[in-house]
Design goal:
Blueprint (H helix, E strand, L loop, with lengths): L1 E4 L2 E4 L2 H8 L5 E5 L5 H9 L4 E6 L16 E5 L15 E5 L3 H8 L3 H10 L5 E7 H6 L4 H13 L3 E3 L3 E3 L1 H6 L3 H8 L5 E8 L8
Parallel strand pairs: 3-4, 3-6, 4-5, 6-7
Antiparallel strand pairs: 1-2, 7-10, 8-10, 9-10
The protein binds S-adenosylmethionine.
The site of S-adenosylmethionine (SAM) has 21 residues, from helix 3 and helix 8.
Length: 206
């Protein structure tokens, strides 16, 4: 799979990744990571964890990926076609304020995205998805309808999720992603969090 370090794009195979991760009981994969601020913060705050940010766009990751954090990695990939090297690794997956094809994939239960989410997870893997009204409006739906659709799609693909929780300005301000901070001071901060976990096969409750 392709990883980025500053200006350099490199290939990393499953063996090298496995060596980097060895000993880490918690592996967080952040899909649509943007500028990588969230990954850097999580890696700094949880040195015993390994944090992997994935984004289709490499430009925004050049600055943060220069930092030499031993427990953080930035992968350039489309979330609809996640690299096999990530399969089965995540103890937690986050998708914070998706837009574009990542959001469309959640709204339409796009096969590649749903299959990838399942593939990187295992039973018990925590899932957190944060959605905002502006991105959903651009995708042609409302916060309420879009959230319900995304939740239903994830439920039918093996994730148990609690009822959506509204995020207020304080929640947004204190959540360490760039987009969260922007929403907190923007015109339409309405946002929700969906959280739950990957279920064991044949179990449909949280
Ligand atoms: C609104 S930004 C949020 C960034 C970050 N999660 C945050 O909270 O600051 C949405 C991100 O999703 C990424 N994205 C959109 N579609 C994607 C896809 N199919 N695969 C990977 N990343 C995608 C974009 O490149 C962008 O960085």
């Amino acid at each position: 799979m392709e990883i980025i370090r500053g200006k350099m794009s490199l290939e990393m195979d499953a063996g090298t990744l496995s060596t980097s991760i060895s000993g880490c009981r918690h592996v967080l994969i952040d899909l649509g990571t943007g500028d990588g601020r969230f990954v850097r913060r999580q890696a700094e705050q949880h040195p015993a964890a390994f944090v992997i940010g994935v984004d289709a766009c490499r430009e925004n990751l050049r600055v943060v990926s220069r930092a030499k954090l031993p427990n953080a990695l930035f992968v350039i990939a489309n979330a609809q076609s996640l690299p096999a090297e990530l399969y089965g690794l995540a103890t937690q997956v986050t998708i914070n304020f998706p837009w574009g094809s990542l959001l469309e994939g959640l709204l339409q239960a796009e096969h590649g995205l749903m299959a990838g989410l399942s593939a990187v997870s295992r039973p018990g893997t925590l899932l957190e998805v944060r959605l905002n009204a502006g991105a959903l409006a651009e995708a042609g739906t409302s916060l309420e309808k879009g959230t319900a659709l995304v939740r239903d799609n994830l439920l039918s693909h093996g994730f148990g999720l609690r009822a959506p929780a509204m995020l207020d300005i304080n929640n947004l301000r204190n959540y360490p992603t760039t987009w969260s901070r922007r929403l907190a001071v923007g015109r339409d901060p309405r946002s929700v969090a969906l959280s739950g976990a990957r279920l064991a096969l044949n179990n449909t409750s949280v």
